[in-house]
Amino acid sequence: MTTAQLGQFLDPGALALIGLGCLLVAAIQNGLGGLGTALAAAGRLVRSAGERERARLAAIMLEDLVQRRGVSCADREVGACAFTHQLGTMMSDEPGFESYAKAVDGLLQACAARRARAIQVWNDLADAAPALGMLGTVLGLVQMFGAMDSAEGIGAAMAMCLLTSLYGLIFAHLVAGPIARRLEMIGEHEGAWQGETAQRMLKLARREYPDRAMRRTSPAAAKDEASRTHPDLVKALRR
Question: Which of 9, 30, 124, 167 stands 20 to 30 A from 152 (CA)?
Answer without folding.
Answer: 167
